[in-house]
């Protein structure tokens, strides 16, 4: 086993990643907060320009882990997605390679905005936080969509119409609902929830030109499962991705027509998922026209970003740690050793709690 492989298995590396991310995330949150209250009331344009780079600096640290540390591959790219533990990272990789990572937005549940680093960053980045109360959510969608379409640069807005991860129980309940409602019965996806999608459309027309339908899957027989733990350990994962561009004008303007259009789209996605599971190809038996393969090369920005943050965060920490050890104080030494052992304990617990259900009967799908 080479030196690099040993490093990828070392808990010290995980601690370095964790300290760097948490510290840099809180620093970024501080500047976001300062700019949100100090600059945004006077110039939203300038605030959004600066916030793009702050968000990019935070998100790209996970892109680095996937692309450069673990060597994750995206295959079958064209002009998100079965829900796995790292599906969101694959989406971020795609955004990074197309230059919109700092401006990627999503519909997410409101409770996430209180989570340090990511949640706070999303709050300052004007994500659409849903309360699971349709009367309130409809007003939120109307207000924030009108804000997002006026961004100074290109943005991406992720909508997972199924609303949650798939489990065997949820899939069974979804199929029963679809049967009663006379809707297509899906085997790999949940029946999409149409209200949020339909409520967003009127505010997008004329300002947002395209919808990108994305289908992401991993081979179930791959010995390296798509988990965050495997990425942190530097194990290479291969993701298979199909992306098709749909002009927004193709979506019917009336609510009934838009609802039917979304159900037909998910029926097609379900056929593609079945085709991939059975043949390893999205198009072999799905009756969906085959898309030509396109490759978007990875960029060096995420690598440069993580190097800069590691130097900024770890240099003063190592300086004070060395001084602590050289001070000769047994109390200080025990405090440092206790912190290290606690971090190792937390990493061990994380490996257990973060294990994916991928490959089991309760397999996570979108």
UniProtKB/TrEMBL annotation:
Residues 83-198 form the Phospholipid/glycerol acyltransferase domain. GO terms for molecular function: 1-acylglycerol-3-phosphate O-acyltransferase activity. The keyword Transmembrane helix applies. InterPro entries: Acyltransf_C (IPR032098), Plipid/glycerol_acylTrfase (IPR002123). One of its GO terms (cellular component) is endomembrane system. The chain crosses the membrane at residues 12-38, 50-70, 300-319, 325-343. Pfam families: Acyltransf_C, Acyltransferase. SMART domains: PlsC. Keywords: Acyltransferase, Membrane, Transferase, Transmembrane, Transmembrane helix. PANTHER family: 1-ACYLGLYCEROL-3-PHOSPHATE ACYLTRANSFERASE-RELATED, 1-ACYLGLYCEROL-3-PHOSPHATE O-ACYLTRANSFERASE 3, ISOFORM E-RELATED. Belongs to the 1-acyl-sn-glycerol-3-phosphate acyltransferase family. This is Phospholipid/glycerol acyltransferase domain-containing protein. It comes from Frieseomelitta varia. The lineage of its organism: Eukaryota, Metazoa, Ecdysozoa, Arthropoda, Hexapoda.
